Amino acid sequence: MTRAEMQEHNRRKVIAAARVEFLARGFRDAKIDDIAERAELTRGAVYSNFTSKRALYLTVLLSALEAPAPGAAPRTVADALAAFARAWTARLPLVADAMRLDAELLPEVLVSKPLHLPFAQLTGLAAVTLGLVLEQMDDSRDRMVRTAEAALTTLHGASQLAAAAPHFVDPFAVVAAVGHLARLDLGDGWPPPHLQFIPSATPCDDPWSPPVGVIDALREAPAPLESDGLVAVLGLNRLIAVEEALRGVSAASGSPEQVTLVLVTADPGELGPLARLCVADLAACLRATVPPSGLPHLRIVHDETGEIAAAAAVHAPADGTEAALRIAGGRVIARATGYGACHAAASYH
Asked: Residues 126, 245: contact at Cβ < 8 Å?
């Protein structure tokens, strides 16, 4: 094998060994030395592939994620919420001795302060995406992100209670309860942005040469970045700003435009796997809820290496990064950076 092939082979061995250890002992009690021994590698070989035990744990969770079977296209918002909840609850343990790899995910987020804001923003991104899916099914409501937030709150709570008291949680009752959220009027609406604090986008005519072979994590399909639309480069502490891009382009043009969210982080070792796990989990449940045509005009791509960010002239991406570009005819026609960049670029015309 080549050096790269050997590295990938060892990485797979570490992931397989870690999965066995995490299932047997749980995340907290599993030891890197035991994982290395099981993988027939050294401790150094484990850390050459993963920056920490937590990074390895998040990667194991991602590798173990199974996509639910796609269901029939929902006819109503209630049907869509119930389908999303069914996909989520299909993974809950129903007996006391059922061991779940992800049982310690939220407790680990809770005790690790650097994960708090990124996890909150990733959950907010899930709510925005699910809310937009629901809005496409019911044009009588301006916004359904709060309904999606309530659904995710219910489902995350059910997951944690199922881990602590598996006999207590009835997944059928959870699915029914989430479906009934469609009937509630939570007074949701899109607040107007504070325009006095948002700079205008800067017109330009710059070349646009993004990397090729980029994958949309929401659809698990190619995402050609050279196509017209808006590209938002957001750090993991600014993800929900993508809603300003999504709603801004619709308001400016009168019809949905393609928005590509590029996720960047200053900590690709740990926060990169966390982002991939959360987005993949959301994507799996959405694909079991609606067909591809039911997804919003949003693509989500991961950029741990910063290659896409560099093409967008963001040379030091951080978790607080917010930058946006308008692309037309294969060129950058407007740029904006800093707080409000998504709204500024979206409203440029």
From this structure: no
Res. 22 pLDDT band, cuts 50 70 90: very high
Q: Is 332 helix (H, G, I), strand (E, B) or coil?
A: strand
**CA quadruple 104, 110, 111, 116: dihedral positive or negative?**
positive
Residue 74's CB is within 10 A of a number of other CB atoms, namely 20
pLDDT tens for 140-190 read: 888 999 999 999 999 999 998 988 887 888 999 999 999 999 999 998 988
Helix/strand/coil percent split, the chain, to 5: 50, 10, 35
Per-residue pLDDT tens over the stretch 288-346? 999 988 999 999 999 999 999 999 999 999 999 999 999 999 999 999 999 999 999 99
- How many whole angstroms separate alpha carbon 330 and alpha carbon 309? 16
DSSP letters of 149-178?
A: HHHHHHHHHHHHHHHH-TTT--HHHHHHHH
Residue-range domain boundaries for the chain = 3-49, 77-183, 195-346
Say which residue the tokens 């779940």 belong to.
Answer: 100
Reply yes or no on whether the pLDDT at 193 is more than 70.
no
Cα angle 203, 205, 209 (rounded to 5 degrees) comes to 125
195-346 in CATH: which number? 3.40.30.10
CATH 3.30.420 corresponds to the domain 3-49: no
> Chain centroid to CA 59: how far?
14
pTM: 0.93
Alpha carbon separation from 94 to 43, 86, 106, 128, 151 (Å, rounded): 36, 14, 19, 30, 21
